[in-house]
Amino acid sequence: MLRPADDRSNFESGNIDLDRFFRRFAGQNQFRHHIGATYIAVEGEHVLGFATIAGGNIEIEDLPKTRRKKLPHYPLPILRLARLAVDQSAQGRGVGKLLLRAVFQITRDMAESVGCVGVVVDAKPDAVAFYERYGFEPFEVIEGALGSRPEPLPMFLPLGEIPRV
Ligand SMILES: CC(C)(COP(=O)(O)OP(=O)(O)OC[C@H]1O[C@@H](n2cnc3c(N)ncnc32)[C@H](O)[C@@H]1OP(=O)(O)O)[C@@H](O)C(=O)NCCC(=O)NCCS
């Protein structure tokens, strides 16, 4: 988990928004406002990647019909993977997978301790295929629009389908 002394100033994932968030806001969001927690992967003093999570909820109508089962019509608790990024120097070395593994364990723990039906991520277009590898599905499938879609795609991974990675 992020500590105040961790050096975030040189982090560069290639995505300016994610880098700015990590450098300027991840700390205060966790230490002062308590609106999200950031987990980091480190090698010595060097931060290789981070995952920021927060509690959230979805409505049953957000889920595809096959996933609604007998769930109630009040807000359903989920874990939101708000941001995930790996430093360019470490991409492709399994760091993203390592961070996801930690997020999956937290989701299982949350399900046991407070309730949680799965993980939600707003996937950047370039990262959609990354999340699909782990079973995340788009909330709504817009045929033919995926390839050119500039805005994030909300994706869901149900608790029962979280892979052992
Ligand atoms: C997307 C990102 C988090 C992946 O992290 P990473 O550490 O490079 O990925 P890993 O090395 O852990 O890859 C795990 C697996 O996913 C695959 N993968 C990695 N990036 C992928 C992508 N964009 N699309 C499809 N598959 C991908 C890898 O080949 C690897 O497969 P394997 O397990 O069969 O070897 C990272 O590239 C990144 O930070 N990108 C820029 C910021 C960003 O887009 N973040 C996502 C915001 S929603």
Q: What attributes does this structure have?
A:
binds coenzyme A; 26% helix; 165 residues; 6 strands; alpha+beta; Aminopeptidase; single chain
Write a brief caption for the model:
This protein is α+β, with helices and mostly antiparallel strands and 165 residues long. The protein has a domain at 48-161: Aminopeptidase.
Structure description:
This protein is an alpha+beta fold and 165 residues long. It has a domain at 48-161: Gcn5-related N-acetyltransferase (GNAT) (Aminopeptidase, 3-Layer(aba) Sandwich). The protein is 26% helix and 27% strand. The protein is built from three helices and six strands; from the N terminus they run αβββαβαββ. The two termini are 20 Å apart. Bound molecules: coenzyme A (COA).
- Distinct small molecules: coenzyme A
* Proportion of residues in β-strands: 25-35%
Helical content class: 25-40%
Count the DSSP helices. 3
The CATH H-level superfamily of the domain at 48-161 is: Gcn5-related N-acetyltransferase (GNAT)
CATH class of the domain at 48-161: Alpha Beta
- What do we call the CATH topology of the domain at 48-161? Aminopeptidase
SS-based class: alpha+beta
Question: Which CATH architecture of the domain at 48-161?
Answer: 3-Layer(aba) Sandwich
Unreliable segments of 5+ consecutive residues: none
Largest sheet: 6 strands, mixed
DSSP strand count: 6
Going across the biggest sheet, name each strand in turn: 1-2-3-4-6-5
| Average pLDDT over all residues | 93
